[in-house]
Amino acid sequence: MVVGLSDEKAGIDLGSAGPLTVLVVDDSKAQRRVLALQLQRWGYNVVEAGSGEEALEACQSKAFEMVLSDWMMPGMTGLQFCSKFKAMPREGYGYFILLTSKSEKAEVADGLEVGADDFLSKPVSADELRARLRAGERILGMQRELVQKNRLVGTTLEELQKLYDSLDRDLIEARKLQEGLMRDRFRDYGGGTVSLLLKPSGHVGGDLVGSFAITENRLGLFSVDVSGHGVASAMMTARLAGLLSGASPDQNIALVAGPGDVRDAYAPWLVATRLNRLMLEDFQVDQYFTLAYAEVDLSTGIFALTQAGHPHPMVLRKGGTIDVLGEGGMPIGLFEGAVYEQVTGVLQPGDRLLLTSDGVTECPDAAGAELGGEGLERMLSANAALPSADLLEALVWDLSTHAGSSEFPDDVSALVFDYRGPGSAL
Is the pTM of this model over 0.90? Predict the structure, then answer.
């Protein structure tokens, strides 16, 4: 159907579908009609405009994808109309062909500058016109396909953002639950006190530190570092927290019922052995963890300790010296039948036992050099006069200085046990 401006309301419908509608703009009605009839025979719908002003008005009610416009017209020229057409807000692309007798390079450059996509010399050759229209349709088709793909990408990104926001909220709640596993950062057992540090590198982490009472005068201390990061590691630490919980002694893997109502505990090396068997035979997961576990007698200061792939525990003596303990050992959950050694020692009143994760000793500086055990000893010596809770805060501060950032690449955790001496037990 050929539609003139007098038929505008009938022929211009923003919601219409079907053949492509071409806007033909020419101040010569005869030339305009020749073009319109030719386009109609090729299956196009046509809207005619006799001037740039009329064409611009038509564009207010329909987003034309293709325009054929004469260059030289009274009033608004085709060049001026092209500039305004390209500046109009639109969702899709508008392909603009200028009809001109101009052939000077400078004039063609002017047309390209304002956004014209193609040029046809007058008088217009039917074959050339059809070829240019087909080329324009291919470009419009690619643009429509690109818009559809962009919409799909946008929709997908919106869905991903919703999932991310939901996951982020869940991780925040998971972190609260994980922090609840060690709600008491300071505990007083009478004969000694325990101070804890836990700083995950992400929302949730794989480190765990804590303590539990075995008897009135015996105490269990542990530091755990589960392999990997994120939710899987956090879930494993939650399971281990239940296995080393003082709140649920019947489920504590370190505890054993003694005569009557008396509780006893397995030796530290045997606790590591039991955990290793549990990981390999019952849990059957592709994870492992390192462990430092100690039992301390509050009445004597005697302690026994096992190290399973964890950084070396240290004793900060009251006089300022530092003893490094342990032989290394194998991580838990890697090798069936792994053997775990046990070391013993004695704490004097005022001595402190320190357990840390490798997030401390393996923390890199800007050049990638790790802090190491000797670097940790230097930090501890520099802050030895501080109470244990302040000592742990100072450790984080010095570690941030070493790393050049307060965000660490791995979870950072530590436990400090202050021994007061006999006669102070609960």
Answer: no
Strand, coil or helix: 277: helix
The position carrying tokens 């201390």 is 221
Q: How many CA atoms lie within 13 A of 48 on its CB side?
A: 23
Tokens of residue 340, six digits: 């775990």
Express each pLDDT in 152-170 by its tens digit. Answer: 888 888 888 877 676 666 5
CA distance 251 to 267: 17
For residue 220, pLDDT beyond 70: yes
Band (109; pLDDT cuts 50, 70, 90) = confident
Three-point CA angle 259, 263, 268, nearest 5°? 120
Nearest of 143, 185, 202, 199 to residue 20 by alpha carbon:
143
Query: In 10 A of CB 398, how many CB atoms?
Result: 18
Residue range 181-419 in CATH 3.60.40.10: yes
Q: What is the phi/psi pair of residue 67, to 5°?
A: -130, 135
Distance, in Å, from the CA atom of 404 to the CA atom of 365, rounded to the nearest integer, reads 7
Number of H helices, E strands in the chain: 11, 19
For residue 95, what are the β-bridge partners? 66
Strands (E), 126-206: 186-188, 192-199
Can you give the residue ranges of every domain in the chain? 2-147, 181-419
| C-beta neighbour count of 385 within 10 angstroms | 9
Region of residue 200 (left: phi > 0; alpha: psi -120 to 50; beta: else): beta
Read off the pLDDT of each residue in 169-193 and give the average, rounded to a whole number. 71
- List the end-to-end C-alpha distance of the chain, in Å, as a whole number: 99
Q: Do 54 and 70 meet the contact criterion of CB atoms below 8 Å apart?
A: no
User: What is the phi/psi pair of residue 34, to 5°?
Assistant: -60, -45
Query: Where do we find the tokens 């054929």?
Result: 68
Q: Is 212 exposed, middle or buried (0-12, 13-18, 19+ CB in 10 A)?
A: buried
Q: Quick one: 2-147 is in which CATH superfamily?
A: Response regulator (3.40.50.2300)
CB 212 within 8 A of CB 277: no
